[in-house]
Amino acid sequence: MSAPLAPGAAVGNPTVSAAGAHAVLALIDDRLITLNRVVGLIRRRNLPVRSVSVGPAAAPGLSRLTIMIQSDEAAAARAVQHLDKVVGVREASTFDARDGVTRELALIKLRARPDRYAELLDVIQLYNAAVVDDTPLALVVEVTGSDAFVLSCLRALERFEVLDVARSGVVALCTHTPPEMLS
Fold it and tell me: What is the CATH number that goes with domain 14-101?
């Protein structure tokens, strides 16, 4: 079992960041056709995507798209240039994952055997995870942190019969966000 990371200690995955992980952020129109165009661009350009997540932006009618790519700075900048040309993309930017905060959420469904329940709760507490559903047959745990932290928690929980896992994908904020990206 790998040692857990402190919840706030890691920003992104240190292994991935050192190798060149970049976050590409885009504010897009909240329309399915815009999302389809962006995904098509990512596919056509064959970007080395590690994670994609999309959700509502602060401004109504816009969605915030976060794409984590494993690349050098030049490739990330080219991705932003291509995104800026897509109809419906209001703004795009990139930053090195080490220059911001990245987080992921995972829901993990486990078999809750009574003879190992206390041990399971100890592991959950070690990772500052939360039990969000508890039935006689299964337990659903929520864990949030860097992708390395979430992966570490998943590995620690493998011995308890993991039934299902749902991961959100990484969301990211640059610690030096330009004012125009805040809307």
Answer: 3.30.70.260
b/e string for 53-73 if b means 16 or more Cβ within 10 A? bbeebeeeebbbbbbbbbbee
pLDDT at 182: 53
| Single-letter residue type at 81 | Q
Instruction: Find the helix or strand (DSSP H, E) in which 130 lies.
Output: strand 130-134
Residues 6+ away with beta carbon under 8 Å from 43: none
Q: Per residue in 94-137, pLDDT tens?
A: 999 989 999 999 999 999 888 999 999 999 999 999 999 999 88
Residue 103's CB is within 10 A of a number of other CB atoms, namely 18
- The mean of the pLDDT values for the chain is 86
CATH 3.30.70.1150 at 102-171, yes or no? yes
Read off the tokens for 113: 């055997």
Q: How far apart are CA 18 and CA 70, in angstroms?
A: 10
Q: Where do the domains of the chain lie?
A: 14-101, 102-171
> CA-to-CA distance for 177 and 91, rounded, in angstroms?
13
pTM for the complete prediction? 0.78
